[in-house]
Every structure is written in C-alpha cells, then in structure tokens.
Design goal:
4-stranded mixed beta sheet, 10 strands
C-alpha cells in the first residue's frame, strides 16, 4: 500500500472555491431547501445543470475521449466535500460517481456504453444504479430482477434519486441493462425518506425492456465497482457535512452570550468542541486517503474505503448532533439548517454499508477477526 497524498493541489483548491461560490449564490436558504424537499421537489434542476453541464463536474471521472474531463476521484471528492457542506439536493453521488463507475466497469468500446457515458458526463441525462442505498460494497447484491425473452421483471427497493433519473442501470440475472424511466413497464414509487434532500423510491419492472450493456459477470463486477467508489467518496461528503457543523457551531457560540460572556468561552463547551475538532480532522484524513486510493488505483482500495466509512459516518452524526444541541432552541427549528445536516448524516450513516459492516470488512481484510 503506497503512502496516500492527503494534501490538496492548487487545482483542487481552485475547484473548491468555484463550487463553494456557486453553492453560496445558488443553493438558497435552508428553509427553502426544506420546503422544496417536503413538496417532493428535492432536486434543484437549474443548479444541477449549472454544476453538471456548465461547470462540467458530472464528467470528472469520465475520460476525455468519451466526452468527460479526465480527472480523478480526488477532484470528485472535493466536489462532494462542498456538496456535503451545503447538503445540496443534487444526484452527484448517484449519477456522476456511481452510475459513471458502473459504466466504466463495462466495455467502453461498446457504442451504447460510450454514448450513455457521454450523456452522463455532459449533464444531459441523470443515471442511477438500481440498487438499494443501503447496499454495501462487499455485501450481497439484490437478485430480484429476472430477464425473460428480452423483458425485465422485478422490484428494487430504496433506490436513491430514482425519481429524478432519466435512465436506470439494472442488474438482472443475465447482465446489466439501461432502462429508461417512464418507459412501459417501469414504475418508480417514491418513498418518504429521513433525508428529504436525497429522495428514495422503489423501482418496479413489469415486462420492461432495456438495452443490454454487459453480461452477468461483468454486471456484478460493475455494480460492485460503483458501490466501492460511492462508499469511498461518500466519506468526503460526510467530512464536508461535519466540517460545516463544527464551523457553524463555533461561530454561533462565539456570538451567543449568557451571563454577559460568549457561550463559547465556557470551559465545558471548549472541551466538547476541541474533541469534535479532533474527530473532524481525523475524518478528513480518512476521507482523503480513500479518495487518493481510488484515484491511484491502489491495491488497498477496499481497506481504505472501509476505514473511511467506518469512521466518517459516526463523526458526521456526532457533529450534526452537537450542532443541533449547542445551538439551543434555534437549532430545533425548521428554519435553521441544523436539522437538514442531522438528517443527511443519519441517512449517510446507513448508506452503502453501515459502520459496523465496514468495521467487519476491515477486520476481514487485515485478518483481525473477532473470536
């Protein structure tokens, strides 16, 4: 295992500045985000077009010859850090990372695969792997879709961003299919998620047709590749979320006064914030290590991803909980952003494998299993 590069390059810092400036200008106030999500309109399509098409961020992982930017997972991680800081309701993780990784795991010389990759890279279309959000990289894959005579039938539950997708990547018993949302035999049934900014839906296929992109063996490997990259870069989103919660809480406690003193000057709160700062910085290192491993195709990618997810998920939840509690009464209101961060953190905690599942994976990978 090579030593990971945890530092940010100048290009990555420039990318961060551009994304942060856009989100500060366009993401809207937390109350508006919450109201839009509650109304079933979580996706901000105009913002997504700007991010995906105008800035070219949807194609970061796609090679230039296929219409993308030819960047690496390190740059995609920076984008996800900023999206996490703003709990932005866009399908970057599912489309620009997971669906793209699944297609890159297929034969890119195949004209249909290459065409779909180009469409996702341009932001023209949104693609989503039809797997439950809870599916872990090394865990069992759902096997509920059957292919009979060219038609697909089955049900996949709790698929993230399926309601906003244009095309679903469906793993059937004989291969990987691209299925158009809205086509005959395709039903997307929205569910009520904890995190309204990342909607979930059940996908029901009843005699649906799709374009076959890969055989069964390639399909499984492609979906596992998508889950692994998704879990690794989800850690960057979790770190961005935790960093915002810490920064916002420190700012608030410096302004809020009790007994004619800033609340942040109380020793007990200083200790809590110092502990949280240590956790957040450790989470940054773990997330950056996972992104660097993916970018360099390191042999220890599964270990780096499992370490990052087993740690960052808990830190994000802790940071969001402290943000709500230390903001006092205002932290419990719908108008304040704290509840959005707590819901996203709790949702991310069980997304793409629970911390417990990832800790078990770490134990297996380093041969330190519990007795």
């Amino acid at each position: 295992m090579s030593t990971p590069d945890l530092l940010y390059s100048e290009a990555e810092e420039d990318l961060r500045s551009a994304v942060r400036a856009l989100l500060a200008d366009r993401a809207g106030d937390p109350g508006a985000v919450a109201r839009r999500a509650e109304a079933g309109q979580a996706l901000d399509r105009q913002l997504w077009r700007t991010l995906a098409a105008d800035m070219g961020l949807a194609g970061l992982l796609v090679p230039e010859k296929l219409g993308g930017q030819g960047a690496t997972h390190r740059e995609a991680a920076v984008v996800l850090e900023e999206l996490g800081r703003a709990v932005t309701p866009v399908p970057y993780l599912t489309s620009a990372v997971m669906a793209t990784e699944a297609l890159l795991g297929c034969d890119t010389e195949n004209a249909e695969v290459a065409e779909l990759l180009g469409e996702l890279a341009s932001g023209e279309r949104i693609g989503v792997p039809a797997v439950p959000l809870s599916a872990a990289p090394g865990g069992p894959l759902p096997a509920g879709v059957r292919a009979e005579g060219g038609s697909l039938s089955g049900r996949i539950g709790a698929v993230a961003d399926a309601a906003d997708a244009d095309v679903l990547l469906v793993r059937a018993d004989d291969g990987l299919y691209a299925v158009e949302v809205g086509a005959p035999g395709v039903t997307v049934e929205p569910r009520t998620p904890l995190d309204l900014t990342r909607p979930l839906a059940d996908v029901v296929l009843d005699g649906a047709t799709g374009r076959r992109l890969a055989d069964a063996g390639t399909a499984e490997a492609a979906i596992r590749r998508a889950l692994l990259a998704g879990a690794g870069l989800l850690a960057s989103e979790q770190w961005g979320l935790a960093e915002w919660c810490l920064t916002e809480t420190v700012r608030y406690l410096g302004e809020r006064r009790q007994f004619n003193r800033p609340v942040g000057s109380f020793q007990a709160l200083k200790h809590r914030l110092a502990q949280l700062w240590l956790e957040v910085e450790n989470a940054r290192a773990a997330a950056r290590a996972a992104a660097d491993a993916l970018a360099t195709d390191d042999a220890e990618i599964p270990l780096s991803v499992a370490v990052a997810q087993s740690y960052c998920a808990g830190v994000a939840v802790h940071a969001a909980e402290e943000c709500v509690q230390l903001h006092g009464g205002i932290g419990m209101t719908w108008e304040h952003a704290a509840h959005l961060y707590l819901k996203r953190a709790k949702s991310d905690q069980i997304a793409l494998g629970t911390p417990g599942a990832h800790r078990a994976a770490v134990a297996e990978l380093v041969d330190l299993r519990a007795p």
